[in-house]
Amino acid sequence: MAALGWLTPRRRSATARSVLAGEASAEAARKNQEVTAPLEDAAEPDFPVLGDDKAAAFFDLDNTVMQGAAIFHFGRGLYKRKFFETRDLARFAWQQAWFRLAGVEDPEHMQDARDSALSIVKGHRVAELQTIGEEIYDEYMAERIWPGTRALAQAHLDAGQKVWLVTAAPVEIAGVIARRLGLTGALGTVAESVDGVYTGKLVGEPLHGPAKAEAVRALAAAEGLDLSRCAAYSDSHNDIPMLSLVGHPYAINPDTKLRKHARELDWRLRDYRTGRKAAKVGIPAAAGVGAVAGGTAAAIALSRRRR
């Protein structure tokens, strides 16, 4: 029955561990902000109009910014570097295939993947994994970035607004992706480390569902943001808590539950998996042409791969 777990609705609110995970992720993101922020972006951000320094944009990563799940691509890269054995790679491959076919995040599969990753990195230095993460991004992730969503993020940057990834992926890997995309930084799952060495434990819990909302809330408080002026983007109904926090929620490549929820609340939708554009328009003007062009490019690339 576990294989059918993704069909069963799951409802849960933020727990003490969710709050701890969110606060830890926000603290880690702020510590890394100077490293991951674009060097030329010295001024305070403006959104949605120039002069508004109380807003930011928050983007989910898996299937929103990037096709597939970052943790699985990371696992492939670690296997290539002899971090674990073939049977572990087979499990990663199965989880990734299920994720892509089901189109939703199954908590049991995601938890299993994170547990595997934690056991693999235990005893390794944080700096080592960050360096490897740079290599893995080039090998497996760069070509999987959705051009349409990337155009949306760039529109926020062009408006002078800070843009953050918010993901269950390890914060170190999320930081690499954010830096490569020229974003401000990343909120991600924080793995415990002592003297720069991973212990194999998490701080709180994975940054998933309610924990993401807590991370955004904590970062907004620390940065002095007005969430009613902020935007958030995601593909998953699991991120409804995060999307509901902001004044400008967007459903990107939405799963069935999120699409239904978004339509009921009149949220904006975009789907770059087929190149089609949802009827509800309202993307910031600077993103309009780029987003549509990006979505079309993504559709063509996918079509070629399927032939």
Task: Give the topology.
Elements: H1 16-36, E1 56-60, H2 70-80, H3 86-102, H4 107-121, H5 126-141, H6 147-158, E2 162-170, H7 171-180, E3 185-189, E4 191-194, E5 197-202, H8 210-223, E6 231-234, H9 240-243, E7 248-252, H10 256-265, E8 268-270, H11 285-306
Parallel strand pairs: 1-2, 1-6, 2-3, 6-7, 7-8
Antiparallel strand pairs: 4-5
TL;DR?
The chain is α/β, with parallel strands linked by helices and 307 residues long. It has helices spanning 16-36, 70-80, 86-102, 107-121, 126-141, 147-158, 171-180, 210-223, 240-243, 256-265, 285-306, and strands spanning 56-60, 162-170, 185-189, 191-194, 197-202, 231-234, 248-252, 268-270. The strands form 2 sheets. The protein has a 6-stranded parallel sheet with strand order 3-2-1-6-7-8, with helices on both faces. A two-stranded antiparallel ribbon has the order 4-5.
